[in-house]
Amino acid sequence: MSRLPEDPHGDGFVLHAGAPLEEAEGLVILLHGRGSSAADILPLHEAIGLSADTPPLAWVAPEAAGHTWYPNSFLAPRASNEPYLSSALTRIEALLDVAARAGIRRERIVIAGFSQGACLSTEFVASHPARYAGLIAFTGGLVGPPGSALNHTGDLAGTPALLLSGDPDPHVPWSRVEESAAVLARMGGEVTTKRYPGRPHTISRDEVGLAKQLIEQAFDELRPLR
Q1: Which CATH number goes with the domain that contains 113?
Q2: CA-to-CA distance for 194 and 78, rounded, in angstroms?
């Protein structure tokens, strides 16, 4: 099937690890950064290394068309990133629909990403408010130009959110991480931020440890899941 211009990510493939969706008690969606791939970020599930008593989870990593979710900076005018940004958000929604058909509701789903994928993760959760198992943004924030209103409405109902970033970062100002955290908190998210002075544009071991802690705690609190 050919890719429609208005939906460039619509027929992208998805890599899977962990338990089959039909047998999983939760789902973690991993979103890669600009110029990267699903194959690059999916091994993060091995690095996180959940404890043996964590419920069986499925891990999925969709791939962006051309290895980028949207063409310009997340700080550019939103119109300059269309239709790619809307298509990317729709792609995540489609994954949640697949999970729902397998019996996995949103409160059993963690959405996580790095860099451009972190921005996309944060924007999705804020623009599709619900109780999720968690949001993990490895260097990212809400999408929009500096000085623009980042307000979103809706209730995150205590969704745990982890916003982590180096500072200074060549792509994501720490000020946008803080702004995004404030918006998510106003929406009812349980937000934790951590700033890593001088950390390069990558995911550190400490961040992986914090992600593991969030995921294990989130699914421990949701027992029994079925």
Answers
A1: 3.40.50.1820
A2: 27
Q: pLDDT tens across 174-208, in order? A: 999 999 999 999 999 999 999 999 999 999 999 99
3-class secondary structure, 60: strand
DSSP state of 102: T
Q: Map 107-151 to HEC letters.
A: HHEEEEEECHHHHHHHHHHHHCCCCCCEEEEECCCCCCCCCCCCC
Cα–Cα distance measured from residue 63 to residue 10, given in angstroms and rounded to the nearest whole number:
10
Is there a domain that residue 108 lies in?
Answer: yes
Task: Give residue 47's domain range.
Answer: 14-164+176-221
Residue 149: CB atoms within 10 A of its CB come to 7
Is residue 120 situated within a structural domain?
A: yes
Q: Is residue 5 part of a domain?
A: no
Q: Is the pTM of this model over 0.70?
A: yes
**Is residue 171 assigned to a domain?**
no
Are the beta carbons of 60 and 26 closer than 8 angstroms?
A: no
Question: How long a stretch of residues is the chain?
Answer: 226
